[in-house]
Write a structure and sequence with these properties.
By secondary structure, the chain is mainly alpha-helical. It folds into two domains: 10-72, Arc Repressor Mutant, subunit A (Orthogonal Bundle), CATH 1.10.10.10; 77-222, GntR ligand-binding domain-like (Four Helix Bundle (Hemerythrin (Met), subunit A), Up-down Bundle), CATH 1.20.120. Helix content is 76%, strand content 4%. The chain has a three-stranded antiparallel beta sheet with strand order 1-3-2. The radius of gyration is 19 Å and the shape is elongated. The model has no long low-confidence stretch (mean pLDDT 92).
């Protein structure tokens, strides 16, 4: 994290920088954070830092740490399961709607995203794999034609990103994810409404089982 220049949206930029550090795993669960430390690190005054920290607390990424101030919120397996339940419903609805009016232009974009995802897997770069995965699902939300789906999911994606960063790692899992994404795209391209919905829901439910299981193991090792 590097110093930031003062601008009207400075607190938002500090928020985004700290959030990125938390979700990527750079800032681990339980890490204590102070206004003074962040102000010095970013080269800014304490006021925009305070505003950013207050927002991060409301979003659930920072929690009170008693006399120690605040710290990075612990990863929570049950919360992750709850998030995936919601995402599964949204993913299924988005895929069903998208399959009903999928255009050649959308098909081209979907295939491009598939190529990006497979290249990310080949690179072995986990952050790139996660970014490509999120971009794919956001594309399906957009293709649904219903903006409320993306708006509803938006607050949860950073929490899910954090779960993926902590739990995603095995090469076979990263490859299988994109095989499943390709299956969803095929159903969209064929206009198979029910199939697209089932595949999208099934994919999310499977990822929930795998990633929450791995997350539980990660938390147990850290205890």
């Amino acid at each position: 994290m590097r110093p930031l220049l003062p601008e009207p949206d400075l607190s938002e930029r500090i928020h985004d920088a700290v959030l990125d550090a938390i979700c990527s795993g750079e800032l681990k669960s339980g890490t204590r954070i102070t206004q003074e430390e962040l102000a010095q690190k970013f080269g800014v005054s304490r006021q925009p830092v305070l505003q950013a920290m207050m927002l991060l607390r409301r979003e659930g990424f920072l929690v009170d740490a008693g006399r120690k101030g605040v710290c990075v919120a612990p990863l929570d397996v049950q919360q992750a399961r709850h998030l995936y339940v919601v995402r599964g419903a949204l993913d299924g609805a988005a895929a069903r709607l998208a399959a009903g009016h999928y255009t050649p232009h959308l098909a081209q974009r979907g295939r491009q995203l598939l190529e990006v995802g497979r290249r990310a897997v080949a690179s072995g770069n986990i952050p790139s794999v996660i970014e490509a995965d999120i971009d794919f699902h956001l594309f399906v939300y957009e293709a649904s034609g219903n903006p409320v789906i993306g708006e509803t999911a938006q607050p949860h994606w950073q929490h899910l990103r954090r779960v993926m960063a902590a739990a995603l790692g095995a090469e076979d899992l990263r490859v299988s994810v994109w095989d499943e994404h390709e299956g969803i795209l095929r159903a969209l391209e064929a206009g198979q409404v029910a199939e697209a919905e089932a595949l999208a829901r099934g994919h999310t439910e499977q990822m929930s089982d795998i990633l929450t299981g791995r997350l539980k193991a990660v938390i147990s090792r850290a205890a």
